[in-house]
Amino acid sequence: MFTRMKKFLAGSVIALAIGATGVMATSVAYAADEPVAAAAASVAGAAAAVTATVDKADTAWMMLSTILVILMVLPGLALFYGGLVRSKNMLSVLMQVMTVFSLMVLLWVIYGYSLAFGAEGLVIGDLSKVFLSGVTAASQADTFTPTSKIPEFIFIAFQATFAGITACLIVGSFAERVKFAAVLLFCALWLTFCYLPIAHMVWGAGGYLLGKGALDFAGGTVVHINAGIAGLVGAYMIGKRLGYGKDAMTPHSLTLTMVGAALLWVGWFGFNAGSNLEANEGATLPFINTLLAPAAAVLAWNLGETLFKGKASMLGAASGAVAGLVGITPACGTVGPMGAIAIGFISGLICLWAVSGLKRMLGADDTLDVFGIHGVGGIVGAILTGVFTAPSLGGTGGAAPADFSILGQIIIQAEGVIITIIWCAIVSVIAYKVVDIVIGLRVPEDQEREGLDVTSHGETAYSN
Q1: What is the dihedral of CA 291, 164, 380, 83, to 10 degrees?
Q2: Fewest CB within a 10 Å sphere: which of 207, 249, 347, 364?
Q3: pLDDT greater than 50 at residue 394
Q4: Whole-angstrom distance, CA of residue 111 vs CA of residue 132
């Protein structure tokens, strides 16, 4: 009998330690003496405390991911864009990227984070955390695991880099002809009335698209389609560069462009895998997909150029890598590795067509093909997410694998794409018009001919 009692007590304590119900605890309290009951309660309390503890590895991973996204912008995107423009405008692009990123980060912590991730709402949050009110080093943010948290400060910083790079992407569409002050004012307006609502609808608590089940793991709609549409609208409203279609406007340094593309690829691991918010096995899927998709896109772009132009180019390889990264961004956490290769390959081919054939059809001087790569690549990636997330094609199946429907998910993805396009187009038109009325969008013709490096910033990228 004594042996049975010991086994009963031991079993009860173990049950308590792993989260047994209150009924179990009560039975032990009656069956055991007070010291055993007290010990069991202590173990249960400790287990509860563990669930509320922020994991050091998750925190370190999110800090590293944030740094990697900054690397994408500075110097990655800046060099990628800078190498593509003419030498007389090199510094203007670097200046715009660095300053826009800095401005967006500050606006994010002042009010952007609160509106994007504040209280529940279909379209926007609230101002409860304006100026980061109530946020301290002890504040915690949710992850995809209900029992795991990360410090809210690092979540804010990570998301700030997303807002920053999105606005910086737009810069490439109107490079070489826009006033510096106009760039800053437009980006401030666009962040407030376009980026924040879309980010909330896709990722925020109670967001409309999140509630519909739209899949956007790391920003296909929020970042790339958003930036691509804003860029296309800007290209139309600002007009073509002087001499466009007549004068040679070739990239002045494909070496810098290649370096920039490589830095973008490296930093994108933080962008995609960091969006898992935890340093666990879940981060490994977007990590490997971020390796495979751009590799497939580089080969696809090279193949396409070889077939249609006779030669594969370095510019094409760099553009293909970015196209593959854009295409896999919304899908990176839900498609399998083979699905990532397929998305990368398809994105490479379609974006190649977008920056050549489609660009001619649209007739817009999108200087650095923001729409052709980010807009079109984002659309392709968002739609294909609905295909390759299917468990039958190696995907995770999203939140409900057993009920996953390719057609149903494509419809949801398409709704997200359409809402983003319409919302962004309307806001962008208004924002550009406001800026044009207030300070003017375009530099005078003589300044454009001389180059923005000297006329806007009093510097040159290279000494003779």
Answers
A1: -70
A2: 249
A3: yes
A4: 8
